[in-house]
Write a structure and sequence with these properties.
By secondary structure, this protein is an alpha/beta fold. The chain contains 7 helices and 5 strands. It has a single domain, classed as Rossmann fold.
Length: 166
């Protein structure tokens, strides 16, 4: 099984992914982790060259394939802003006969804006340049029913939600 964690920046995808990894032993793969491993920590997404992004996604794809071939459940953590990007990830798993489910971390825009500003005060995670953040908000396509969605709302109790969905 492959799960794609989908949502706006600062929606809580990483927090949820780490919790699911801990509870179920899923393999958590993060685009940001690969980006940092390849030397792009402290660099805004706009400053990462296109060729580097291609390499980042090749590395991520290889890790997804490797883990799915080993019959592991994979959580891929990324904004997956557009359906086209999600379809690309779904196709990769589908070619291996593996089902993909979308975990939509449904966090309202006002909340992600507030979290982003709070993060700037405490620097708990890397920041996103204004242009990249606004572009993600503008371009985000919420998942549709045909995408095999599991909805997560931060107001839900995690124990209840996981029992109902996993």
């Amino acid at each position: 099984m492959q799960y794609l964690l989908v949502g706006l920046p600062f929606a809580g995808k990483t927090t949820l992914a780490k919790e699911l990894e801990k509870r179920f032993g899923f393999v958590r793969l993060s685009v940001d982790d690969v980006k940092f491993e390849l030397g792009y920590s402290g660099v805004g997404d706009d400053d990462v060259p296109d060729e580097a992004w291609e390499k980042i996604f090749r590395v991520l794809d290889a890790r997804i394939v490797e883990n799915l071939k080993a019959d592991k459940t994979v959580l891929t953590e990324y904004a997956w802003v557009t359906k086209q990007w999600r379809d690309r990830a779904r196709k990769l798993a589908g070619e291996m006969g593996v089902e993909t489910k979308i975990i939509f971390v449904n966090t309202p825009e006002d909340v992600v804006r507030r979290r982003r500003l709070e993060n700037r005060d405490v620097n708990a995670r890397f920041d996103i340049p204004d242009t990249v953040f606004e572009e993600a908000l503008h371009d985000f396509e919420p998942p549709t029913k045909d995408e095999n969605i599991i909805m997560y709302d931060r107001a839900e109790k995690l124990d209840v939600w996981t029992k109902e969905n996993f």
